[in-house]
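Minutes, project check-in
Item: structure for the 310-residue chain
Input as provided by the requester:
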Amino acid sequence: METIFYTASTQLSGRNHVTVGFFDGVHRGHQYLLSQLVRQAHAVGEKAVAVTFEQDPLHTVAPSREPKHLSTLSLRLQWLSTTGIDACVVLPFTPAMAELSAQDFLLQILHRQLCAHLVMLGYDNRFGRRGTDNIELLQSVAKEQGITLVVCDDFKSPYGRLSSSLIRTLIADNRLTEACECLTRPHTIEGTVVSGYQQGRQLGFPTANLVLSDATLLLPPDGVYAVKALIPGEDEPYCGMMNIGYRPTFGTHEKTLEVNLFHFEGNLYDRQLQVMFYQRIRDEKHFASEEDLARQLILDKENILQFFEK
């Protein structure tokens, strides 16, 4: 997949099949839409192009309504590259772009610059200023310019109409298995390892302290989780356990993300990790002593290893 960061001078060639979306999480519904786009484009020898935004459009037009996200831009691009599309165009969603009408966005950007011959929208996709343009009117305008504009049917899941909002709700409710089914992968965060308190090492469980690469990433509720973590440059992830919370046994009051990787030896400082959540093990809680906490961590590790063995 070719990744193109859009500028005013961006100009694609040929006749392309194009879709537009934020694609947060690149979930099963997005994958269905993109598979339809790829199938139709490749059937006539044309390219399938996905247009996404560098940041959530709500960040510009209604920041108070911007939700926590299922993916960073780098994760979105990583997952989009597995869908079979030929190119992904990343648009900076500026105030000026937010003021474009749907017709102008369709004709100026999608048609003239990205050479869209067919535009496929998701069932709930609306673009252009405030997303209020009538889809029938837009189809009529597109037809006048030789553009086919189609709306893909929605992808239904056992949990309801599939959307990023639904998956956020599943994760917030600790329904990680259901969220994984909707995403086709575990919920994943990424961040950089920084120096911490070193208290985990003293207990026999050295932890990597993570700072999220994007503060808008969605975290599961506080607690202890069975996770896998992928280190850049390595092919296989490490099993481990992650604590999200306030470390009440040590009396600290700032929220931390600490992951202990089983069977890993080495220095992770300043390296970026991708951490995948598989199962919640227990609540975070206060222990009467560090020895009690150490005994619980041994049990947690045993439970997690048994979980992954299954």
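Outcome recorded: The chain has a mean pLDDT of 91.
No further action items on this chain.
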